[in-house]
Automatic annotation (TrEMBL):
This is Ribosomal RNA small subunit methyltransferase I. It is an enzyme of class 2 (transferase). Catalyzes the 2'-O-methylation of the ribose of cytidine 1402 (C1402) in 16S rRNA. It is found in: Cytoplasm. Residues 4-207 form the Tetrapyrrole methylase domain. GO terms for molecular function: methyltransferase activity. HAMAP family: 16SrRNA_methyltr_I (MF_01877). The gene is rsmI. Belongs to the methyltransferase superfamily. RsmI family. The lineage of its organism: Bacteria, Bacillati, Actinomycetota, Actinomycetes, Kitasatosporales. It holds the Pfam family TP_methylase. SUPFAM superfamilies: Tetrapyrrole methylase. Keywords: Cytoplasm, Methyltransferase, rRNA processing, S-adenosyl-L-methionine, Transferase. Its main location: cytoplasm.
Length: 282
C-alpha cells in the first residue's frame, strides 16, 4: 500500500497557535520535509517533541529535485509530513509540486489544518469577507506589478496579497494608482506576534504611512471594486484607462478590449472615445 502525504499548518507567530495534532504528526512521520530545518528544530523544541523519522529540507531551491524522492518514499508506504516556515504548505510556500505529484501516483493526501495569514488578515481587516481572492506576492518589477494589478482592477471580491516590508510603500502607491486613492484597505503586520498591528484606511493614506518604513511580515487586504455601470464612466475616463494600459506596454487594441470589459461596454464605444480624443488633441 502507498503511504500518506500530510500537509501541516505551523504557527504564523504565536507558538501557542500550533494545532494539537502537529506534535503527534511530527513524532510519527517517517519523513519530515521542512522548508527550513533550523526553524523546524526550534518548533520541535518549543513543542517538546522529537521527530523519529528522517528530516530533509524542501524549499524553493530544491523543490523540483526533491519531489521525486519524496514521491518514491510515499509510493513505498512512508508517511511524509510537509511543513513550511509559517502557515499552510502550498499557500505561497513549497508544496504544490509535491501534492500534484502525489495525486498523480494515487497517494493519499491529507492535512493538519493550522494558522493562515490569509484568513487571519481577512478577519481582522474590517472589509467584506464573504467573497475574496488571494493573489499572493506581486511581481517585483514596477511595470509587471502594475500590469498584474490592472488585471484585477474591476474585481469586486476582496483582494489579499503578501508583500515584503521594503516594497510595501511602492506596492500601496501602485494600488492607489490602479484601484483609486480612496479604495479601502488594511495592512496587517506581524500577525499573532508581540507587535501585531492592523492599519486601516484609504490606499493613498496607507502608502504615505508605509513610506516612513515598515518592518515585519505583511499581508495586505484591499476592498473589491465598487459596483459601476456604463453611465458612471465618461469618455474622458475611458481614454485615461486606455492610456494607462498603453503606457504599461499593452497594444492599443488589447487595452481597448480590456477597458471595455472593465466598464461593461461594447469595444466600439471605447474605441470611438479614443479616436475622438486623438482628433481633439490634433
Amino acid at each position: 500500500m502507498t503511504g500518506t502525504l500530510v500537509l501541516a499548518g505551523t504557527p504564523i507567530g504565536d507558538i501557542a497557535d500550533a494545532p494539537p495534532r502537529l506534535a503527534k504528526e511530527l513524532a510519527a512521520a517517517d519523513v519530515v520535509a521542512a522548508e527550513d530545518t533550523r526553524r523546524l528544530r526550534r518548533l520541535t523544541q518549543a513543542l517538546g517533541v522529537t521527530p523519529k523519522g528522517r528530516v530533509v529540507s524542501y524549499f524553493e531551491g530544491n523543490e523540483s529535485a526533491r519531489t521525486p524522492e519524496l514521491v518514491d518514499e510515499l509510493v513505498g508506504g512512508a508517511r511524509v509530513l510537509l511543513v513550511t516556515d509559517a502557515g499552510m504548505p502550498s499557500v505561497s510556500d513549497p508544496g504544490y509540486r509535491l501534492v500534484a505529484a502525489a495525486v498523480e501516483r494515487d497517494v493519499r493526501v491529507t492535512a493538519v489544518p493550522g494558522p493562515s495569514a490569509v484568513l487571519t488578515a481577512l478577519a481582522l481587516s474590517g472589509l467584506p469577507v464573504d467573497r475574496f481572492c488571494f493573489e499572493g506576492f506581486l511581481p517585483r518589477k514596477a511595470g509587471e506589478r502594475l500590469s498584474r494589478l490592472r488585471e484585477v482592477a474591476a474585481e469586486r471580491r476582496t483582494l489579499v496579497y503578501f508583500e515584503a516590508p521594503h516594497r510595501l510603500d511602492d506596492t500601496l502607491a501602485a494600488m492607489a494608482e490602479v484601484f483609486g486613492a480612496d479604495r479601502r484597505a488594511a495592512v496587517c503586520r506581524e500577525l499573532t506576534k508581540t507587535y501585531e498591528e492592523v492599519r486601516r484606511g484609504p490606499l493613498a493614506e496607507l502608502a504615505r504611512w508605509a513610506a516612513e518604513g515598515v518592518r515585519g511580515e505583511i499581508t495586505v487586504v484591499v476592498e473589491g471594486a465598487p459596483e459601476t455601470g456604463p453611465e458612471e464612466l465618461d469618455a474622458e475616463e475611458l481614454v485615461r484607462r486606455v492610456r494607462v494600459r498603453e503606457e504599461a506596454g499593452e497594444r492599443r487594441k488589447e487595452a481597448i478590449a480590456a477597458v471595455a470589459v472593465e466598464a461593461g461596454l461594447p469595444k466600439r464605444v471605447v474605441f470611438d472615445a479614443v479616436v475622438a480624443a486623438k482628433r481633439a488633441g490634433g
